[in-house]
């Protein structure tokens, strides 16, 4: 099994920008929307927010993810992306552990129903469907999830 080094970085770091661009291209191919309009770098630069980069044994950036505060005790997972198997779970596990340390009680996220790979991934790792929240309310193409952090 591969191991990954995960560290907090600024999302404007060139390596992060490459991964975010790959994510946007992938989402556009799957869903028809890059998701860029749903991510503001400033949202993950505020207190209670986090942006991380995963690197492989060679130091190459191979994944990223973030969360931002959305309400008391709740953060939203943003911009999860993995280039290789195992990276996504490593990043998600890191985000969950960090969110608990920050005092969050749950993590929420949104993905598109058509993105079945993401839907399956989140369900497999303990996320349950919830009513669409925030700007996703009433959007039939969106599906929202939450995981209570224990």
Give your account of this protein's structure.
With 150 residues, the chain is α+β, with helices and mostly antiparallel strands. It has one domain (5-148): 3-Layer(aba) Sandwich (Aminopeptidase). The chain has three helices and seven strands. It has a seven-stranded mixed β-sheet with strand order 1-2-3-4-5-7-6, sandwiched between helices. The model has no long low-confidence stretch (mean pLDDT 96).
Instruction: Tell me the CATH architecture.
Output: 3-Layer(aba) Sandwich
| Count of all domains | 1
Which strand order do you get reading across the main beta sheet? 1-2-3-4-5-7-6
Please report the first level of CATH classification, the CATH class.
Answer: Alpha Beta
Q: Nearest-angstrom radius of gyration?
A: 14 Å
H/I helix tally: 3
Beta fraction of the residues? 25-35%
Ends distance = 26 Å
| Shape annotation | globular
The structure class reads alpha+beta
Layout of helices and strands, plus pairs?
Layout: E1 5-8, H1 14-31, E2 50-55, E3 61-71, E4 74-82, H2 87-101, E5 106-112, H3 116-124, E6 128-130, E7 142-148
Parallel strand pairs: 4-5
Antiparallel strand pairs: 1-2, 2-3, 3-4, 5-7, 6-7
């Amino acid at each position: 099994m591969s191991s990954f080094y995960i560290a907090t970085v600024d999302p404007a770091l060139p390596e992060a920008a490459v991964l975010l661009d790959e994510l946007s291209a992938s989402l556009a191919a799957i869903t028809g929307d890059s998701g860029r309009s749903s991510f503001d770098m400033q949202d993950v630069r505020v207190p209670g927010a986090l942006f991380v980069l995963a690197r492989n044994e060679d130091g190459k950036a191979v994944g990223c993810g973030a969360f931002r505060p959305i309400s008391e005790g709740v953060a939203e997972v943003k911009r999860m992306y993995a280039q290789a198997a195992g990276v996504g779970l490593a990043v998600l596990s890191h985000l969950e552990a960090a969110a608990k340390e920050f005092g969050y009680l749950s993590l929420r996220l949104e993905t598109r129903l058509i993105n079945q790979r993401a839907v399956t991934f989140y369900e497999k790792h303990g996320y349950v469907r919830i009513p669409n929240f925030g700007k996703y309310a009433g959007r039939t193409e969106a599906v929202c999830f939450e995981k209570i952090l224990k």
